[in-house]
Amino acid sequence: MQTITLSDAAAPKPATPELGATVSALADTELAPLAVRIDRDGLYPEPFLRRLGAVGGFRPVAAADLSSQVDVIARVSEVCLSTGFLAWCQSALIWYVRNSPNAAAREAWLEPAAAARLLGGTGLSNPMKAFFGIERLRLKARRAGDGFIVDGTLPWVSNLGEGHVFGTIAECVDDGSKVFFLAECGAPGVEIKRAGPFIALEGTATYAVRFKEAPIPYRNVLADPIDGYLSRIRAGFVLLQSGMALGLIRDCIAIMREVEPALGHVNRFLEVQPDALEAECAAFAREAQALAEDPFDPSPGHWRRVIALRLAAGEATLKAAQAAMLHAGARGYLASARPQRRLREAQFVAIVTPATKQLRKMLHDLDDGPGVQRPQ
Ligand SMILES: Cc1cc2nc3c(=O)[nH]c(=O)nc-3n(C[C@H](O)[C@H](O)[C@H](O)COP(=O)(O)OP(=O)(O)OC[C@H]3O[C@@H](n4cnc5c(N)ncnc54)[C@H](O)[C@@H]3O)c2cc1C
Fold it and tell me: Quick one: which atom of ligand 1 is closest to the CA of 354?
């Protein structure tokens, strides 16, 4: 079992007290009533995302204030993980654009995405796995003027729809170099096809994306080559995911506390108790905040701590959701009940890239040198 060293930093910082309170109020009033439909009917909460953008919910990541953005994602995930994940997708998109060395790309995309007038996400699962020796890059590019032509398919990209955009990576067939670019859904050669249905996260507008001779103009090229750029964005990409874990764990603690008056006399015999989970969750939040202080820290030690936090928070999410279910008992087993939804959602935190197995491989490779690679 990998362990993380928890920092003694100060208590977690909210996304400015005003923004934090606004996001929670918005989530309670406008998102909570939709959570069951998002989960069961696959309702895509686009109006909520746009409202979140309008109240400044994506401004922190645009300003590289990742601690506050983690807090926003946590507050949304506390109510609904589908929407928390969508908030992460949007945050990752903004993170890619704000860190692009291409001024034309920043000029075209940063402000609309930060305000959530433009929605979108990230297709980095395949590249993340490719860079850690798990699979091959699925997208191929060839140079065309100051842009590229891209071919290939990505099986799952969320927060999509006509006119939405997402960041991803292709391998150049000319010289084996890699290009990081923004794809526009519905642009020539870029087709999206609904994926799923899934057991949870059904409201995440998740699509397979097929590139067929798709032209990528210069203003969509975020990095070429990608080397220095990837090391600038990687910690933020993973760190922002801790918001999903924090929010979900907090709601699992709330579930346990809600049933305490009726069931506390017997629930006290269960192994996982809310006080201990609360302490663990607070430690994760402190560590996320400490690591977010310099998301561009290039040191291997910082990167290792980011991975270790992500792994520990994912595993604690599974533990918390399982415990919430055990505390709630049969009332949590109803198809409309929160505990069973949180249990299904928790699995996603552990399997979304970087998945638990990948995080364990990454730590292994960092500590013991590159281990098993995908057979060629
Ligand atoms: C609801 C949902 C939303 C997602 N949103 C995004 C997103 O926005 N961006 C993004 O980049 N990734 C997204 N993913 C993919 C996700 O991040 C992981 O890559 C995926 O869960 C598999 O990760 P893994 O490491 O466990 O690989 P494994 O499950 O071990 O899979 C190995 C490979 O097989 C492929 N594979 C497995 N089953 C299928 C299948 N039925 N059809 C096609 N390919 C398959 C996987 O994509 C992967 O390349 C999403 C997945 C889900 C379930």
Answer: 25
347 lines ligand 1 (CB under 6 A): no
Structural tokens at position 53: 């953008």
Ligand 1 centre from 124 Cα, in Å?
10
* Token representation of residue 245: 């874990």
Beta bridge partners of 154: 209
Kind of pairing between the strands at 147-157 and 207-216: antiparallel
Nearest residue (CA) to ligand 1, atom 21: 352
- Domains belonging to the chain, first-starting first, are 17-114 (1.10.540.10), 120-223 (2.40.110.10), 227-368 (1.20.140.10)
Task: List the residue whose alpha carbon is closest to atom 20 of ligand 1.
Answer: 352
Round to whole Å and give the CA distance between 310 and 325: 23
Rg (CA), the chain: 20
Whether ligand 1 lies within 6 angstroms of the CB of 173 is answered as no
Phi and psi, residue 180, nearest 5°: -105, 120
Q: How confident is the model at residue 17 (pLDDT cuts 50, 70, 90)?
A: confident
* Degrees to nearest 5, angle at CA 165 with 69 and 341: 55
Mean pLDDT rounded to a whole number for the chain: 94
CA 155 to ligand 1 centroid distance, Å: 7
Q: Distance (Å, rounded) from C-alpha 12 to C-alpha 292?
A: 11
Note the pTM of the prediction, 2 decimals.
Answer: 0.94
Is any ligand 1 atom within 6 A of the Cβ of residue 123? yes
Of all protein residues, the one whose alpha carbon is nearest to atom 35 of ligand 1 is 155
Instruction: Note the Cα 32 to chain centre separation in Å.
Output: 20
Our separate counts of H helices and E strands in the chain read 13, 8
CA atoms within 13 A on the CB side of 250: 21
pLDDT tens by residue, 291-343: 999 999 999 999 999 999 999 999 999 999 999 999 999 999 999 999 999 99
